[in-house]
Amino acid sequence: MTIDQASPVTPGTSMTYRGGRTFRRYLLWYTLAFAAITAVWGGMLGVLLPNQVQMIEFANWFTGADAGVDLTALNDLKAAVAAGTTTATAEQQRLLDLLAGFDAARARALALVTSLAVVVTMLVQPVVGVLSDRTRSRFGRRAPWMMFGAIVGSGFLIAVRYAPTIAVLALLWTCAQTVLNMIPGTLQTTVPDRVPEEKVGTTSGIGGLGNFAGGIVGGIGAGVLLPLIGLDVIYGYAVLVVAGVTGFVLLLRDRPSTDLVVPRHRWRPFFRGFLIPLRDHDFRWVWLARILLTFGYAASTTFALFMLQSYITPALSLTEATRLTPLLTAVSLPGTIIALLLAGRLSDRMGRRKPLVIASSVLMAFSMLVPLLWPALPALFLQSILAGIAFGIYLPVDQALFIDVLPDKDAAGRDLGIAGLGSNLGQALGPVLAGQVVALTGGYRAVWAVALVLSAIGAVAILRVRNAR
């Protein structure tokens, strides 16, 4: 054992990284592994899946002679008719009716594909968290789950590339996301496993940087490469995940957990245990606040590609929208990086998390107001910048707040799995709600209003936390 590490008190658990070269190496590979998995989410959710859904639904709605219709021109015609500057002919009205059906269908289809995967994941992730707490192996408690998630999840990811229908796409993406989500939950649990309490905020902040930057790089990569090599870009994401996770596991080898003492497994207490952290007053309110903010953020971001084609004036073509969608996230990077690097450390020095979480939620709500009142391309970029700063503050401080209010430090895997479930629940409900709003209202304006209200309520929920500052 080096001077940079402290031996565990409990047999079969991890060493503590007190500082120095070992801690810096941990921060580097923790960040890189997070960046690899979030690159998949950025590329798939932001660009590749919306494009794949649109291609499938376009073929369903525009057939025969209509297959060559120009969606950009049709959306401009729709805006002109709505503004009263032109009157549609009978043929144009027929195409506008098809466009309305297509808009609603692709929104519902994308909501189905993304939400089904998240619902299944949120049921699996806490189970994996509990099982990883109890895993005995010569590679430690977390590494086997991370490697399984990387290898098997990447296989399902490649299969997504060949999905011919919405139903098959939903099934394969659900399998891919479910298995891949074994990685961030167990990776995140290595923080309370190996990092001393006074460095948790800093670690969460730097890890959050990898989380956010990975999503941006993944999205930009998809936007650039999709027009060149098509959906084959998915192969690159599969390789990236395996490389990132393998690097973390091999270069930061955990202590064997073969000597770990675990109680006899019983199914009833096993499932009842999921409710234990939610019985804790503070944990429950932090969890609810995360659901609400993630709910609002997901509702506003899921249909970015479609909003560029159908919400703003003038409308963009699919190629233009594909190129610009990841840039909506990229413009927020400077503010997000600064917020991520400062927020975690600031919360550690202040010894307070709540004010920063509340401020980030309020800023997120305000950002939604911009495109609600101004449906133009510059408004979407401004909203993204403000939301990026808000999320940069929120990610590390909210995670540190969860660690502060853990009801049982010895069951961190279980309880942080439940915390992750809050994010998943928000991500699942957001697109479903937004898809229904689009179908009912025939447009995307009301989506911004819903996202604003949900983010604001999330700030109020944090006020209910009593035993954390």
Structure characteristics:
single chain, 469 residues, mainly alpha, Growth Hormone, Chain: A, two-stranded antiparallel ribbon, 18 helices, 77% helix, transmembrane transporter activity
Detailed description of the structure:
- The structure is a single chain.
- The chain has 18 helices and two strands.
- With 469 residues, the chain is mainly alpha-helical.
- The chain has a single domain, classed as MFS general substrate transporter like domains (Growth Hormone, Chain: A), CATH 1.20.1250.
- A two-stranded antiparallel sheet has the order 1-2.
- Helix 4 packs antiparallel against helix 5, helix 11 packs antiparallel against helix 18 and helix 15 packs antiparallel against helix 18.
- The chain is globular.
- InterPro entries: MFS (IPR011701), MFS_dom (IPR020846), MFS_trans_sf (IPR036259), Sugar_transporter_CS (IPR005829).
- It holds the Pfam family MFS_1.
- Keywords: Membrane, Transmembrane, Transmembrane helix.
